[in-house]
Specification:
Distance between the termini: 45 Å
Strand order of the largest sheet: 3-2-1-4-6-7-9-10
Order of helices and strands: EHEHEHEEHEHEEHHHEEH
Oligomer: single chain
Number of helices: 9
Low-confidence stretches: 209-222
CATH architecture: 3-Layer(aba) Sandwich
Number of domains: 1
Strand content: 5-15%
Shape: globular
CATH topology: Rossmann fold
CATH superfamily: NAD(P)-binding Rossmann-like Domain
Helix content: 40-55%
Amino acid sequence: MSHMKGKTVLVTGATAGIGKETALGIAKLGAHVVIVGRNEAKTKAVVEELKTASSNPLIDYVLADLSKLSEVRRLAAEFIARFGRLNVLVNNAGGLNIDREVTSDGYELTFAVNHLSYFLLTDLLLPALEKGAPSRIVSVASDAHRGASVDFDDLQSARGYISFRAYGRSKLMNILFTRELALRVASRRITANCLHPGVVASNFMSKPGFKGAVGNFVFSLIGTSPAKGALTSIYLATSPQVEGVSGKYFAKLRQLLPSKQAQDDATAKKLWEVSEKLVSA
């Protein structure tokens, strides 16, 4: 199959796990795939691996640490300068942080990577997505959002950090972001959807230590493979079946209703406005 030939796709967090498998699956369909990684040697090696596995030479990379807003801005500027047009953005980078950490910008790490990087990168790449329209934005969320709520008085989880609660809240934000984004880009021939990849056997706990290592081991036992976890991302990024579909939440290639909190348009709008202020501070 080669129906993605001539299209440019950017995948963040693509040097391992479902991000890497997402990049591979899309590359096999003929797209020009650009991956984002942090470590240059590792990212270069993954590019060569993907080229071989996909029989597609059109794979490039850009380096960025998405926990830093300055790096997100540099990534967007470099991508636009080098490639100009974007057909699909896959916001995949993220993780679960066992201990509370604060980024160089002063933001709690889970919130910064799992939400603010999605928000800022997408906003900065909208001109490129307009050039590539009809285009798509795909954001990896999670069913971990169920039971979570957004506390606007404690977005940084300063009052009693619990790793899984912070993670679930960030995944709720991904869905709310997608919901509001879909409304804002509807007139530009851009769609925005998000997904639950399933419980995936990948080492997504950042700087795990003993507790995180145990968690990663448990996920390795109960989780599905990264290749299976990537299927819905690939589907939303490439399938003609979801052309024109926007603002929705998917799992296992099917549209699902997220939690009641994730369907709150007032919260989605407020989160957007607060996020705008934070990334411009």
